[in-house]
Amino acid sequence: MTILGLPILSLITFFPLLGMVIIMALPSARAGAIRWTANVTAGIEFLLTLLLLGGFQSSAAGMQFMEQKPWFLNIQYLMGIDGISLLLILLTSLLTFIATLSSWSAIQQRLKEYYAFMLLLEVGMIGVFVALDLILFYVFWEVMLVPMYFLIGIWGGEHKLYAAIKFFLYTLFGSVLMLVGILVLYRHYGTTNLLAMLASGSHLASSLQLWVFAAFFVGFAIKVPMFPFHTWLPDAHVEAPTAGSVILAGVLLKMGTYGFVRFSLPLFPEASRTCMPFIMVLALIAIIYGALVCLMQKDMKKLIAYSSVSHMGFVVLGIFAMTPLALKGAILQMVNHGISTGALFLIVGIVYERRHTRLIAEYGGLSARMPVYAAVFLIMTLSSIGLPGLNGFIGEFMILMGTLPINWLWTAIAAIGIILGAGYMLWLYQRVMFGKLENPANQVLADLNLRELCTFLPLIVMAFWIGLYPKPFLGILDQPVDNIVRLVQPAYGDRPVQAIKAAAAPGHAAPAGHEEP
Amino acid sequence: MDLARYVADLKYLMPELALLAVAVAAMFAHLFGGRRGRRLAGYVALAGLCGALWLLAVTPTARGALYSGALTVDAFAQFIKLIVLLSALLTVLLTFRFFDVEGLESGEVYYLLLFAVIGMLFTASATDLITFYVSFELFAICSYILAGIFKKEIRSAEAGLKYFVLGALSSAIMVLGMALVYGVSGATAFSQIAGPALQADPRLFTLGMLLFFVGLLFKVAAVPFHMWTPDVYEGAPTPLVAFLSTAPKAVTFAVFIRLLATVFGALEAKWTPLLSLIAIVTMFWGNLAALTQQNLKRMLAYSSIAHAGYLLIGLAALSAGGSMAVLFYLFAYVCMNVAAFALILTIQKQGGFGERVEDLNGLARKSPLLAAGILVVLLALTGIPPTAGFIGKYYLLAAAVNRGLYALAVAGALNSVISLFYYFRIGRAMFMEADRPDCVLSVPVTVRAVLLLCVLALLYFGLFPALLTDCAALAALR
């Protein structure tokens, strides 16, 4: 599929660069023109990604819209998407558009650089989801770090410098280890083309596979972030400007889990199965620990930040359960988390822009002054805690259902996390929105204006759509998830769930060659 | 063997011969040109270097050794010569700027630089102990003088003396090593040493190798022979540091590779672990020491130590891949290091240059384009895509992984993270700190040209490395 003679994936990846160049060429005094250019670019980019839906065939087994060119030596410029990437690309372009729109009045200084970095960030993010060559993937993965560093470091809060470099150092640490892992793969396969690697059918030797899996794991786990690699997240989220937090929570965290799905499971099936219990425990710790920390927070943004640790724990749980149901749920939950947490950061940003404080104690009784705001906040709170009828429920339910046949105890512990989640979110809502409007500073708060409402509308629509009729989304995921499960659990296709359960249960010598402690 | 062939073979040495003539011309221009002769010498040198680059492009590579095995003009040597000439060319441009601001222009700089370059070009081609040592010392002695040439600055004199004393010591040790190597083999041509030496006395041969390494490791500033680097880089005139931190390193690595590939090839089991260890220690030492530096030149000095460590990865994992990686990285390294020193020459403060990190504060607001360019340089130095620095580091690590040296690869990768911290103190100062009114930014056309060239090269070869990787692969030794 080409548009104006350009292959569509390259077009959607690099289109934001065009806007970036225009913005850089504009004089900095023309704030209006800069804002319009950025928003229009992000808007067109979103429309371009929607075009993908037109040509996409959910029944096709392989990658679609493939582009392949030699790049240098035997490394290829290889792009292609399947249902998993498609959903995440749409999420990325939508959230970037919303984040750009939400910055209209929040960002008042150094607009040029701000919007330029924002659009550059989008290039990196889309690139990560379309790249199918490991080196190309790595390039986009790193390209994205720099603009995010500056978004936090220039337009961030009080401790922005510390948070920015911490974010940069943590993620770079993870990714350089991944680079070494990529090189080991290259040595084994003689190519960095993911599809060729998978097609060859061979895998690294067991012990080496474990090491390389670990290298990739650290890179992705820092990004997710999984306990105990999560400590950069509260700093970065709290200090970043609202739009930065939206992108960070909405898209950047998904790259870690996307990496697990796209690379870790298919390339290292044996190591994935071996490490599964260990990773499951880490995921459960993240779920429970993240939720408990949320209960302690005085700062709204920090609370939402830690809730990401908990929610992303669910996603990892679903991924490493390695059943089609759980995996599908995990991928849908990535999208859900992007929608609900992205919206919650915007919600915090709305009152922060008006009052310049995020302390929960400063608020209370806002629902009286800001009814529309209260409604939006409520919908997103309920979406986040997984109320049936909204998107969060579908994802979490599928993850739990898919994990149950593997181990009921894990499922039970994760379910506790949902209860805690309802606890901290509803408590937050109660403290901020209900009660008496006592703080005089809050008496004059204005409700959402039209632009602000527009930033929320698409997210609300999506939350209800996924919650009420998730079938189209799941339909897109069927085929790719099937492929991945087949690669990581070769035995799965032939046997029912019970057999997998038996294989995963302790003390069983499973026919698939499982060796569980 | 006859005279006619000797003369005919001169066609392979066109760049060197032309530069020799130009250097003499520059010397005369300086001597007889009066007050304006100093700058005239500079222009002559500039033109000569451009001409030499052109001659290098048209000079064919010679099959086999020339002059009874004394010199080899192969693709490998040509690639190194290209790097040296580029580095010298950019340096001359920066030197103009330096003396415009500081005054006290010394015309000697230009022809000493040319003599150093001639020495380096011959070193890149040398395949005989004698030619190697003579040309090696030619550029070494010139570089001692260059480090100490700025008489206004007492630190410069200190730098020159320190560089000279330690350099002479390391050269002496190296000569001792060469004597041992010659003693056990009875041959001076690189290709004829290994066989007899291994037969005669492998242990003495190994000792000779170790002593030989001392001199080379000193020149590339590898730990534990790096002590001179921060002082020399801090004291010497900034544009010349751009030269001294790149060209000698490139040439020394070239000789190093040649020696490892020919003379000491059979001792690989000995030098692989040794060089791996030195690489790891050098990377960590350089990067950790750079973390606390406030002076940009000292910071870059430690960073150049760390980069020597990265390059040593390629040597420890020497194979066609390793030597190709070193060549690619050297090219990128010249671009990024020269650009980093050029940056210092844009900040003027109280009659001199701003050499401290905080002097860069608010640069992004003074000149967004310059700041963006420097950002590219910082990314390249750290090894982050889409820059040539990343591609170079990728190949170095790949070489290590392909030889099964996983620890070396992991150490190299982790050092990127450490280096990020101090390189991005520059990024932070430029983009996130408040402006400093006492530091004036002025970017004259020479510095602008240097920066533009370096930044574009780093970006271009980061995005489309195919051209350079193909050349480096073609030139790779072994």
What are the SSEs and their pairings?
The complex is a heterodimer of chains A (517) and B (478).
Chain A: E1 2-3, E2 6-7, H1 8-25, H2 31-55, E3 64-72, E4 75-81, H3 83-106, H4 111-130, H5 134-143, H6 145-155, H7 160-189, H8 194-200, H9 206-223, H10 232-239, H11 242-267, H12 269-296, H13 300-321, H14 324-355, H15 366-369, H16 371-385, H17 391-403, H18 408-433, H19 450-468, H20 471-488, H21 497-504
Antiparallel strand pairs in A: 1-2, 3-4
Helix pairs in contact in A: 1-2, 1-4, 2-3, 2-4, 3-4, 3-11, 3-14, 3-19, 4-5, 4-6, 5-7, 6-7, 7-9, 7-10, 9-11, 9-12, 10-11, 10-13, 11-13, 11-14, 11-20, 12-13, 12-18, 13-14, 13-17, 13-18, 14-16, 14-17, 14-19, 14-20, 16-18, 17-19
Chain B: H1 3-9, H2 14-32, H3 37-58, E1 65-66, E2 71-72, H4 75-102, H5 108-125, H6 129-147, H7 154-185, H8 190-200, H9 202-220, H10 228-235, H11 238-244, H12 247-261, H13 268-290, H14 296-316, H15 320-344, E3 347-349, E4 352-353, H16 363-366, H17 368-382, H18 388-402, H19 406-432, E5 440-441, H20 445-463, H21 466-475
Antiparallel strand pairs in B: 1-2, 3-4, 3-5
